[in-house]
Amino acid sequence: MNRNKNIRLLEEQEKWDLVVIGGGATGLGAALDAVTRGMKVLLIEKHDFSKGTSSKSTKLIHGGVRYLKNLEFRLVKKALKERYILKKNAPHLVRSINFIIPVYSWFHFLIYGIGLKFYDLISGKWSFGGTRLLGREKTIAHLKTLKNTGLKGGVQYKDGQFDDARFAISLAHTIEKEGGTLLNHFEFLSLKKTNKKTTHITGYDRIREEEHLVISRYLINATGVFSNNFMISISDQFKIRASRGTHIVLDRSFLKSESAIMIPKTNDGRVLFVIPWHQQTLIGTTDEESVNLNIDQIVPQEDLNFILNNVKNYLTKQPQKADIKSMFTGLRPLVSKNKTSSTSQLSRDHTLHRSQDGVLHVLGGKWTTYRLMGQEAMYYLLKDEKTNFRSSKTETLKLFGFKEHADFNDPLHVYGSEREKLRNFGSLESFSEKFFICEALIVYAINIEMAMTLEDILARRTRCLFIDATETLKIAPEVAQIMATVLKMDDKWTANQLDLFIPLASKYII
Ligand SMILES: Cc1cc2nc3c(=O)[nH]c(=O)nc-3n(C[C@H](O)[C@H](O)[C@H](O)COP(=O)(O)OP(=O)(O)OC[C@H]3O[C@@H](n4cnc5c(N)ncnc54)[C@H](O)[C@@H]3O)c2cc1C
Q1: CATH 1.10.8.870, the chain: domain bounds
Q2: pLDDT tens for each residue of 290-317
Q3: N or C end of the chain: which has fewer CB within 10 A?
């Protein structure tokens, strides 16, 4: 992907079939579906691909065990089918992992056992493997750091895990390979005029500091929690409520397992996951309504207290705030048809709404269902039109980097079939012992993955900031220097990148 080339394409193209605003899971899914139908597609993203909620998820590709409790069987079933499709089309990015619910009473053994058998049953031919009841010894053997006083056993089930920001980059590449055009750091400013056949919008290139007029047949709003103030025309029943979810990252020694723990009931009735991720332990999440929609949230102390207090009941090694290596808060976009429910009661299903100005708003949803949302959005847009556009191909489309049997212990597995090309971009020797970061990844991110800023590289092309924020601050000057050399930028640029990155990174540090 080359941003300069894409700016030229933007200037040359008189009219697009579709412009998608927002480069998170939702926007990427809609753009991918449209481009496989043969449409001329432009996707614009104000910051960087997946900078919003889509890089701050729990990183699960799942049906959602907990939605069974809310009787959302339809959502669970379609998410389980999507889980299967995503793993089939991107086996280098999605893997199946074991989850174990530890149980401390026979009653819970029965209840969770039946619930998880049902989850497995719903997944049918899309199953990742059956649910098993584990005795006390087997549970302890799988989860060596689990508190075992009063432990009766565990219920083991399978679900999917992925790296959200890397998945987004693979999607962006796939869109481009299929003929689409993408621009990060390009902001939608305003809707100029619109009629039945044409929409005129203005956008702003934040890198070159230039305004552009863009003309398109269709327009999709996929701006997640920012949808409400996006256009005047969204009616109240489709307003988004934002739900804040925090995660913390601890050293691997707190879990020491390839299996994840699912805590089915915290002290306020929610679920909590303790998951192995990038050789660390990822724990989350919370679910609290938020009126603050800042894309870079400050992690609230109450969220940290909630996570630490609950996880302490399950782990032998008691985590303290000082153990937190990284922490981050994302905002779930939830469609609020009922103003009184708490956000944890609101459905994770998605909603499509075409406002009077012709804009299609794709609202809510989950990472797991991004493909289906894109497919349904395009169907909705085209259903009453006479067009030559083909039907969607995404159900069987292999994503960029597709590679079967990836070694998930290899820190470079996320590059899939492109992994071997990395050595052409520089040294593959990591200059940190805390995570894998090397010259080749930085140069590749700039030349091939449209990384424009220090943050793009350290937060999303690599996941350094999410793995160990203090270490990331230490290596940031070296990374900025390599970037400046590749991009032919001066010392002022390097200093500016660090000035922008340091305050952001400090939000990930306790
Ligand atoms: C804590 C948490 C955990 C989660 N865990 C999971 C999980 O494990 N599995 C799962 O399936 N789902 C999970 N989800 C849900 C999932 O992450 C979200 O549903 C999904 O990422 C939302 O994607 P989106 O594209 O709608 O929003 P976003 O990712 O926020 O994308 C919207 C984009 O629009 C851009 N934008 C805004 N304004 C403009 C503008 N004017 N011009 C151009 N661009 C603009 C923003 O910069 C942003 O990048 C989780 C969510 C949260 C909060």
Answers
A1: 413-506
A2: 999 999 999 999 999 999 999 999 999 9
A3: C
